[in-house]
Design a protein that fits this description.
The protein is mostly helical. The strands form 2 sheets. Strands 1-2 form a two-stranded antiparallel ribbon. It has a two-stranded antiparallel sheet with strand order 3-4.
Amino acid sequence: MSVGFSTLDYVIFILYALAIVSVGLWVSRSKKGLEKTAQEYFLADKSLTWWAVGASLIAANISAEHFIGTSGSGFAIGLGIAAYEWIAALALILVAKYFLPIFLEHGVYTMPQFLSERFNKGVSTAFAVFWLLVYVFVNLTSVSYLGALALDKIMGVPLQYGIIGLLVFSGIYSIYGGLEAVAWTDVVQVVVLIGGGLITTFLALDAVGMGEGIIAGMGNLYSDAKDHFIMIMPQGATMVPDGAGGERDAFQDLPGLAVILGGMWLTNLGYWGFNQYIIQKGLAAKSIQEAKKGLIFAGFLKILMPIIVVIPGIAAYVLINDYTPEQLSALLNLPIEHIGQIQKSDEAYPWLLKNFVPDGIRGLAFAALAAAIVSSLASMINSTSTIFTMDIYKVYFKPNANNHDMVKTGRIVAVIALLIAMFVAPQLASLDQVFQYIQEYTGYIYPGVVVVFGMGLLWRQATANAALWTAIATIPAGIIFKVFYPEMPFLLRMGYVFIILCFIASVISFTEKKAFANPDFKSGKEAIKAVASGYFFIFLGLVSAIIGFALFDSYEYLGIESIFMLAALFLMVGIILYTNVKMEHADKKSFNVDPSLFNTATPFNLGAAGIILIVSLLYYFFWM
């Protein structure tokens, strides 16, 4: 299926590569005789503007698992996979308003560092190890594999060589320059990946429209693949390849209402709010207000992403299924054997790029794909080195480490992570949809991440023991549900694990005696507003649970049970609001949170309202 680039394609692609490396090395240069400080290397010296924060967030997020993996899921499932993008846009509003300001106010470098300050070293280390394992064995490996798959299918580069090349290329400037190099090259790369991605989408739609333009193409796409334009996936409605020659229910990946009521929120809040290689961009902002605006900007870009990474997959589905090889040969003026077939879903985007994007533009489109891959790999490499250096090395090996020691250690760890990923990545070749592999295996830790970080940020009663046992129980609870309920979709499993973890954390927190006077304790009229809010959320939680029980039998095929997770979330918020002001004692390490941190300006509020309106309309038009 592979085909070589034209000379013009190679020239464009090589110019892109040289430009990225040059920008990365230039922005990361140090003044003569001065070494980089830890803040410069790991947090870009807190110099990022809102547009740099937003662009860097998206560049770090959009990678091979989107261009290749999400397009593959678009080919197999359809628009429903866009839930990960559109719910993320809503989650970014919550992160910008309630989570990131607290991190910035307390001068946090890493997520484990926050846990150390809020709870203790044990909790911090547990999550540091979690993240390191996920970054190296899930994120770095999957992104490098999918990128190498594209190199293989489009340019004929052997898979192993492609993996090595991408990892080395992304490491060149990220290891030398740190987050500053990563963030500012991301600004360039997000322009390339969006521009090049849109070109591929427009050309694919034009092909579906038989040369009559993208509007006709979109009309044909919808009429020829109506079953691929469903956001809420009922059980038994859509069957997709299982990667082993058979089929499985798409409900396993997108279980109906769970995408808006259940585990999808855990995935997005955990990823955007507490994932080091993402939130690190916000931590490097010039100010809290710049960070907030940057995340709203990123939210609008997330709404745009399905046009770039899902629609091409659906277009490939229509082209490969509605046209005979002879018709495609006539349409493209290419021999049948040159066009090739799509053997697995994740080959959809490379197949489009190879056959429907002309010379020259193919080099630009592939540069967009490479920009997405390299920017994500660079962010993951930098965050892996940041967490190990700040939360393992400096805590356990050399507490008095100076800037030189920390930067040197960070670079060594980055190289080791690259080497591990080079050996592990080829093992993913047996999977049909690698994007779903990423979501399922990161889903083992996200329930615990959301519970521990959420309570650590907002709940005065949360204790170190509660956080530690929640962390310890997270992965075993997920595995137990997987073993005893193998047919349960992983998003539903995440919801049930979340409920169990909330219960564990609450019981332990309430049973531990506390002698520290609660600074937020209020009585009388001062507590009325907080108490009323607490009662309101508790009421919402009870009503949600009742709805779930009442409608379970009738709407089980739509995943109505996901509402139980929402009920637990509402109840937990209500308990937090109530106890924060009504209990006289609190955990001694609980954070003082100035309510003014949550204040937002009119531009932020208008932007947030715009995101909510757009996502609501999208779900309205493509519900079922």
